[in-house]
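ok trying again, last paste got cut off:
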Amino acid sequence: MTAPDGPAAAPDGPARPGTGWPDDPATPDTPVAQDPAQVRTLAASAGHLAELVARESVCRACPRLVAWREEVARVKRRAHAAEPYWGRPIAGWGSDQPRILILGLAPAAHGGNRTGRVFTGDRSGDVLFASLYRCGLATQPTSIRAGDGQRLLHTRMVAAVRCAPPANKPTVAERDTCQPWLAEEIRFLAGGLRAIVCLGAFAWQALWPVLGAAGVTVPRPRPAFGHGAEARLGGPDRPLTVIGCYHPSQQNTFTGRVTAGMLDTVFLQARSAAGVKGGRGAGPSSDYSA
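nice, full thing came through this time. structure:
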């Protein structure tokens, strides 16, 4: 299996836990899931969010994804040949007590798989973080790599599949293997979570069984995906709004299917549903828990 741009210098491979990568949640002693059954066991037995995130970040349960992400980290892209690559699963990132959760598809091979942070280091992330900053949900308009000082405000960001897949297309089996990590993460966050933004139809479809596994009552039939589509769940004591958003992929932004204004509208919609004060142009807000 070969990375897209052919051989490049310094094939040093993925980051090893506990060797100094910024914001690495794992240590050499973090248990590693080697198959779907172990994912279920390790996700369910994590005692707190930090322990869950550490276990997510070293998972090796999907052989095809492990082989691809590590090959990309060794071969690299020429533009990043001198840089270290993360080359591991991308764990959830942001506020530990968020009001808003952003759910994407999977890390990009030379984006999150390189930088160690989801939606970071590629053009999708450039568009996404600029919008989050304008809407007062991030402290900086750019996200370069883990450890760059960026913080999410009221917000947490995760991927339905935690490893970079070949051709950006995980299989259904890989999605389902990864599901317990997401279900447990949502369970830990459920007390304060009020809005979930799904970036793309894949994330929208992946969310509903995860919500059910996390104890949230899911409507039947399941709501249809669309940009700005909104489904209101839960009761008055713990409302939860799920919002659809076209994925800010390079193809979508270049063709105009997704514009900066469209993204801003969705994130302001999420702020309103989550009861977060402020709005467009708020920038770094003073009323956050990051």
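cool. Residues 172-189 form the longest helix (18 residues). The domain at 36-274 is CATH 3.40.470.10 (Uracil-DNA Glycosylase, subunit E).
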